[in-house]
Amino acid sequence: MFSSRFTWSLHTNWLSRLLESKRAAGVEILDLTESNPTQSNFEYDEKEILAALAAPEALRYEPSPRGLLAARQAIAGYYTSLGRRVTPDALHLTASTSEGYAYLFKLLANPGDEVLAPQPSYPLFDFLTALESVQLIHYPLRYHAAQGWRIDIEMLAASISTKTRALVIVNPNNPTGSFINHDELAALNSLCQEHDLALIFDEVFSDYGCGHEAQRVATAVGNTAALTFVLSGLSKTLGLPQMKLAWIHVSGPAALREEAQERLDFINDTYLSVGAPIQHAAAKLLALRQAMQQQIQARIAENEVFLHAQAGTLPFVEILKREGGWCAILAIAKPLAEEKFTVNLLEQDNVLIHPGYFFDFEKEGFLVVSLLTDPAIFQEGVARMLARLAAP
Ligand SMILES: Cc1ncc(COP(=O)(O)O)c(C=O)c1O
């Protein structure tokens, strides 16, 4: 009856069932995996947001494959403010970054073709690829004490086959928070030229960098050495995932880019999934981004300082170098069964964290917490987590 795309179990796992039963029993859970900004106690400019969504123009239906010009102009303006020259013509609107991935896989890959994505990274790739009948192949990121997480370019190159169609780069990556550097981009461009591949950059967290590394590729927008798609959206840029507005920016060698855009128009035109109210609101909403991003950055900084101060007292806990994003990774230098620890922490201390395997770390010994968490919850949750880690 059903398609063979569904290769995964529809049953919830042990941790989710435990969480559900605790919540059903009214237990207060300290959730250190919270990544939903609308549930993290931020102050949104409600009046401005709601007013922006009430534009009378939204009463007209004006189907446009690439998306309404006013919205694309607003997004181009956002890139201009970051020092990038972007024309509205290079932008295609989607309802979410996830939908952007689906469109790009339809554009680039036949069923059974392969795309390469980082490991560790965002767990949704398993589903995004499987639902498009595309094969997900991982390439490793390796942690170096001085440089942080870097792409293992040799392993990536060795993973390219005749079926490979695209390389996915999450910049900065979730959860490692690592940006790619210019040397890595040059190597990726060469591989794309040699093997006829496209680059897909997921830059949803790119506004949340920390530190100023000269070698960092802040955005791949405008990369012309290979066909390059950059995905981003309001979900993280404005902390408004429920608004469902994202975009794909296309750059690359002219002929290839033009053909890709025409084909992408065809895909967009088939679904036309972005609503009129959010497209008409885009300019006004994007104008609110500084205030929102400042709140989020301040929250991340406060939680990170607390985490370092607390974890610094435990010699077997290392907080890994972070260049951006919303997560912190704890590397535990003593035997640690991640699943057992995570379940115990929830069962006995009512604290929820992500075990490293959730993000497909190559080996055991990593715990991941969200720096977006409300500080009161974060501090109590971290204290309980570290106490359990310190217990014999
Ligand atoms: C790396 C990464 N890309 C994309 C998304 C999803 O973005 P969207 O809400 O636009 O689908 C997330 C969500 O957490 C993410 O972590």
Summarize the structure.
With 392 residues, the protein is of the alpha/beta class. The protein has 2 domains: 14-43 and 290-390, Aspartate Aminotransferase, domain 1, CATH 3.90.1150.10; 46-286, Aspartate Aminotransferase, domain 2 (3-Layer(aba) Sandwich).
CATH 4th-level superfamily of the largest domain: Type I PLP-dependent aspartate aminotransferase-like (Major domain)
| CATH T-level topology of the largest domain | Aspartate Aminotransferase, domain 2
Compounds present?
pyridoxal-5'-phosphate
What is the number of strand segments?
14
Number of domains: 2
The mean pLDDT is 96
Order of strands, main sheet, comes to 2-9-8-7-6-3-4-5
Number of helices: 13
Unreliable stretches, pLDDT < 50, 5 or more residues? none
Specify Rg, calculated over alpha carbons: 21 Å
CATH class of the largest domain: Alpha Beta
Structural class: alpha/beta
Helix content: 25-40%
Distance separating the two termini:
52 Å
Tell me about the biggest sheet? 8 strands, mixed
**CATH architecture tag of the largest domain:** 3-Layer(aba) Sandwich
Query: What shape does the CA trace take?
Result: globular
Strand content: 15-25%
The H/E string reads: HEHHEHEHEEHEHEEHEHHHEEHEEEH
